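Before relying on records like the one below, remember that each one covers exactly one chain. Contacts with other chains, cofactors or solvent are not represented anywhere in the record.
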Amino acid sequence: MGYCKFSKFDLLSLIIVFYVAHSENDAQILNDRASLLSFMAGIAYDPGNSLESWNASDIPVCKWSGIVCAMNRNRVVELNLSHKSLHGSISPALFNLSELKVLDLSGNFFQGRIPAELGSLYQLRGLSLSSNLLDGEIPAEVGFLKQLEYLDLGSNKLVGEIPVSLFCNGSASLEYLDLSNNSLSGKIPLKNQCELRNLRYLLLWSNRFVGEVPLALSNCSKLAWLELGSNLLTGELPSKILSKMPYLKILYLSHNLFSSHNGNTDLKPFFASLVNSSNLEEIELAGNYIGGDLPSIIGDLSTLVEINLDTNLIYGSIPPQIANLVNLTLLNLSSNLLNGSIPSELCRMGQLERLYLSNNSLSGHIPSAFGNMPHLGLLDLSRNKLSGTIPDSFANLLQLRRLLLYENQLSGTIHQALISGTIPAEVAGLSSLKLYLNLSSNYLYGPIPLELSKMNMVLAIDLSLNNLSDSLPSQLGSCIALEYLNLSHNVLEGQFPAKIGNLPYLKELDVSFNQLSGEIPQSLQASSTLTLLNFSYNNFYGNITNKGAFSSLTVNSFLGNDGLCGSIKGLKDCRRKRARHFLMAILLSLLITPIFCIVGYPLVLRSKFKRQLPISKGKAIIKDDGEAREEIKYPRISRRQLIEATGGFSSSSLIGSGRFGHVYKGVLRDNTRIAVKVLHSKAAGEFGGALRGNAKY
């Protein structure tokens, strides 16, 4: 049996080796500690006390918050202080953390430049400084980090061009590169000799990059996520590059200056280049003003989940083959030049949740089959040339949140079924939905359906610019979640319901250009949420004060209501109005009194005399007041006939005298008995010297 034999010298040597190694480790961790304390010195504000443990002398470095050390070596390998709301600058002293593999300072408020010294962290594999306030250029030294796999400098204030070293001299193992949401400029410096064959994520959106997409990008065949949107990139859509990316999953090219093939007239090569991308889920190509019609080959991209092509120059009809995209949840073709009718085949897309076809030239009727799309939550068909009625089948869309049909040529009434669904009236089918209902600028008529009030989670209702009539239902006050209500430019009448003013979240109200009347309810003025109101051009009346919700309003909110007065600048003063009415009453009384004395009193006397003189002839009788009379037309009698009938106004014909003259009786040649009033000369002058004659039967 063998055994080991150690001399005293060997044992001493072994102890010395362990001591030296331990001393070296202690020295290295002390060096790391000094670097971290230098970094902490650059922190001006730590609102969450995230670095409190760094100040404790009895806490080892490897137990400080945000610090991870290697298991087998007493060295800092990770510094993660992301989303701590730290303010300050990044200290160059971090370069002494020679074993550091991960540095994550994202989601803070660091300012100043990115230290070039970070390029000395040769072991670094992950660097994230995103979502800070860093400015200046990207240091070229960062491009020499050979082990780097993950680099995120997005959402800062970085300027200048991308260092060539970042693409061509850097790590061949780089998988994730995010420089988005900065102010970087110049061309994308990717050359054919650049080795980025492991790149899977390239995010350069929202910068100021120019030029064409570099052809060398086709070497990145593993690319799954490509975001180049919101730049100034030009040239033809990169169909050749995309055709070599079979793993592509996300493609965002929106808001650039791209064009389609053959002078911006042919989209087929672009969509054909994506057919082999068997994992493709999202395409965004909005806001490029690319032209051409939608090719039928778009229906072969069967894995698509979202496609956004709005704000372009795409023309022609919507190809029915697009219905083959059975996994699609979002289709946005708004703001193009599409025409023709909406293909009913779209209704076969059973997973569709959001459909935007607004601002085109689509015509014809809305397909009733839309009611068979169980997941449809948003439908925007506004600003087209659609006609006919709103399909009753819309009541089946139990997931519908937003319905926009304004600025079309739709007609008919708002069917109750659209609001309540096929469920009985006592249960509103859409009552729990957070719906934005916009049916403005159409030809809808009739009353506002009462069933609308059962949509107690509706957020906004816009029925403006129609021909809706009848009164405004007070039941709308049951839409307790309502924030926006626009009923302007209709022919609504009656009083405004006070219950609507009690809505707890109502912010905007517009009932202008109707025929509403009565006083504006105090409940509106007492609202604590209302900010915008418009009552103009109705028939409202009453006193309006500049208090509560009305304190920020101007006279423009009340124009065209002549009966309104109040303290808002531009309205009539109610006190002056009352004083004017009182003055008018006094003037009228002063005017009426003498007129009554001059005209009314003689008429009273005449009436009294008539009651005292019943005259009859044949079947025609003048009876006492309170009995029925038979109306007879009085003949015209000349002055000569009056003189003859009264014997020249002889005293024997005199039957009464008064302050203003005498009354004579007489008989005409046809035996008609008359009474004649002759005024004194003074009274005759006041009344124009008229002789009054009355013939009675």
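The chain has ten helices and 46 strands.
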